[in-house]
């Protein structure tokens, strides 16, 4: 039984709710596995025509779990990193809607970007703050954010690590639509029901075609990103950046 997510099916819609509130839904390996397993189960069920993935009012997900990663080595990140099963998630045939309220940072923003539609509450905050931890995005951010909002805006966000609110994210093209926070789950359900009412094979074909539009060059980019992300775990600045977060103090980077 999953411990860090809640799942429910209502009609033809499957819902996955990240439920690790004490860590703002930070994606540790257990949570990542539970999300992927639940999504695969819905995907295999022909009665399910759309999946909604959501978090809490405060956080969709505040990133990969920094405390779990902080002391890992290059070798362990590369061989068995938190990337492990996201390829299975992005290979789902069923459309996935990310219903985002609160923080969607780092791996949380990247998880939202692995979905087909991003519905944002007006409280949503998106960002790739990895640079402040002495690393770079590692679950697709350098590729998918750039594809979504263009190189210059993506570069400014990733180089500064700043957050972007829902309105700015919509203007930039990162989110499909912004809705009042109180309406987020209802709007997501209505949207999912609409999608789930379409022909499943047609939806699958459309999703494949949409993927093809995004994928030229992406596989190579993701391979590069994975290698680069893992390699940063050989830096002192990665150790310092993550230790500083855990100890609640500003990092003192030594650029080595
Ligand atoms: C581990 C986390 C966490 C994270 C929050 N927490 N984010 N734990 N990993 N990513 C924990 C905090 O340590 C704290 O635990 C509790 O959740 C509440 O967080 P606070 O910081 O007290 O909340 P608040 O002051 O409201 O600030 C919210 C926040 C901040 C701005 C979102 O928590 C934050 O900056 N989080 C880190 C965001 C981030 O850098 N994400 C990128 C991660 S790297 P305690 O025990 O103290 O109560 C990444 C790489 C992806 O995602 C690639 C992987 C392959």
Automatic annotation (TrEMBL):
Protein known as: Enoyl-CoA hydratase
Source species: Gulosibacter faecalis
Superkingdom classification of source: Bacteria
Catalytic class of the enzyme: lyase
Record EC number: 4.2.1.17
Pfam families: ECH_1
Family: Belongs to the enoyl-CoA hydratase/isomerase family.
Keywords: Lyase
MF GO annotations: enoyl-CoA hydratase activity
Annotated InterPro entries: ClpP/crotonase-like_dom_sf (IPR029045), Enoyl-CoA_hyd/isom_CS (IPR018376), Enoyl-CoA_hydra/iso (IPR001753), Enoyl-CoA_hydra_C (IPR014748)
CDD domains: crotonase-like
Catalytic activity of the protein: a (3S)-3-hydroxyacyl-CoA = a (2E)-enoyl-CoA + H2O; a 4-saturated-(3S)-3-hydroxyacyl-CoA = a (3E)-enoyl-CoA + H2O
SUPFAM superfamilies listed in its UniProt record: ClpP/crotonase
């Amino acid at each position: 039984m999953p411990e860090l997510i809640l799942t429910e099916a209502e009609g033809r819609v499957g819902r996955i709710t990240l439920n690790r509130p004490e860590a703002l839904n930070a994606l540790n390996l257990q949570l990542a596995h539970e999300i992927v397993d639940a999504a695969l189960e819905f995907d295999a069920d022909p009665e399910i025509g759309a999946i909604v993935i959501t978090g809490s009012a405060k956080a969709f997900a505040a990133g990969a779990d920094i405390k779990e990663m902080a002391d890992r080595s290059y070798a362990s990140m590369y061989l068995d990193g938190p990337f492990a099963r996201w390829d299975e998630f992005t290979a789902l045939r069923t459309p996935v809607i990310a219903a985002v309220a609160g923080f969607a940072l780092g791996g949380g923003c990247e998880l939202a970007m692995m979905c087909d539609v991003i519905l944002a509450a007006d409280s949503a905050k998106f960002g790739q703050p990895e640079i402040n931890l002495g690393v770079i995005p590692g679950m697709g951010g350098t590729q998918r954010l750039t594809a979504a909002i263009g190189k210059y805006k993506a570069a400014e966000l990733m180089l500064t690590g700043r957050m972007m609110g829902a309105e700015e994210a919509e203007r930039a093209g990162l989110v499909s639509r912004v809705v009042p926070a109180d309406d987020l789950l209802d709007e997501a359900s209505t949207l999912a029901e609409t999608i789930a009412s379409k022909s499943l094979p047609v939806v699958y074909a459309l999703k494949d075609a949409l993927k093809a539009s995004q994928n030229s060059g992406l596989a190579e980019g993701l391979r590069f990103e994975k290698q680069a992300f893992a390699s940063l775990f050989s830096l002192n600045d990665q150790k310092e950046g993550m230790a500083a977060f855990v100890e609640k103090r500003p990092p003192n980077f030594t650029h080595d």
